[in-house]
Amino acid sequence: MTIAVRTNDLTIGYDERLLFENLNLSIPKGEISVFVGSNGCGKSTLLRSIARLLKPQEGSVVLEGKDVHRMSSREVAKKMGILPQSPVAPEGLTVHDLVKQGRYPHQSWLKRWTEEDTEKVEEAMRATGVDAFRDRAVDELSGGQRQRAWIAMTLAQDTDIILLDEPTTYLDMTHQIEILDLLFELNETQGRTIVMVLHDLNLASRYAHNIIAIKDGEVFGQGTPERVISCELVRDVFGMECQVAKDPLFGTPHCIPFGRGRCIVPEIREASGGN
Q1: Using 50, 70 and 90 to split pLDDT, how confident is the model at 171?
Q2: Which residue has the higher pLDDT, 260 or 52?
């Protein structure tokens, strides 16, 4: 397995609260990796540290043999693009201008805007379906439209590694699948390494080559969805009882949580505590 990014004895947290201590983790190159875990377990914090947005207290994040925290911001931005959770655009900034910001790492006082930059921006806008409202202000858009505009900016950066923190937030079912299909296609056709935080275990199982389950500051499980996703893991990581079946369309693990609701199967209703 070729490694895209790895952590060496990584210790990160906020003030005196440690979220990860001496973490060693490898992200495969050319695959889709998804972090899963309960709220507050540190998935987003780990992604931020990998992207050089959070400095570790100890250890390192290694990209192509270099410690990312010893690399310049521009150098990292040419290799890794990140879409953080709930980003905010300056007031009045148009969608087109936002997407153009993705080309910033490729600009310098020696290298001005080129035809290639224009092509990358247009490709990203078409791929995410934001071209229709390119001249509208980002802060005037719906949550789903705004999320797609930010993803377009990340794609315009044209990096081999793309990091996304909950990219399907605010999106309806149709646009969730469209965005995940787009990322899957980028991986399939261009070999891009995709690293995401997702809350939906079933979508994670459908799209990921590599699931990384996080609990108590450690990697609780890592591997293909077929190896990692189980009733036991869901119980241990999420504190939830479920059944794991096979997705009838894709053959991937499909988590069916227990709970209250209009259950028509008596034995499942009783196991869920229903009446």
Answers
A1: confident
A2: 52
- In the block, residue with structure tokens 């709930």: 86
With beta carbons less than 8 A apart as the criterion, state whether 161 and 190 touch: no
CB atoms within 10 A of CB 232: 10
51 and 82 in contact (C-beta within 8 Å)? Answer: yes
At residue 198, φ and ψ (nearest 5 deg) are: -130, 145
- β-pairing, 253-257 with 242-246? antiparallel
- The most confident of the ranges 68-82, 169-183, 202-216 is 202-216
Query: Where does residue 38 rank: exposed (0-12), middle (13-18), buried (19+ CB within 10 A)?
Result: middle
Q: What is the mean pLDDT of the chain?
A: 91
Q: Determine the pLDDT at residue 178.
A: 86
In this prediction, residue 267 carries a pLDDT of: 63
Task: Judge contact between 142 and 101, C-beta under 8 A.
Answer: no
How many CB atoms are located within 10 Å of the residue 239 CB? 8
Whole-angstrom CA distances from 6 to 46, 71, 237, 264 are: 12, 15, 23, 47
Distance CA 255, CA 201 (A): 7
d(CA 119, CA 113): 11
Rounded to an integer, the average pLDDT of 113-123 is: 93
CA distances, 197 to each of 15, 125, 269 (Å): 23, 23, 31
Helix axes 173-190, 115-128, angle to 10 degrees: 140
SS3 assignment for 190-239:
HCCEEEEECCCHHHHHHHCCEEEEEECCEEEEEECHHHHCCHHHHHHHHC
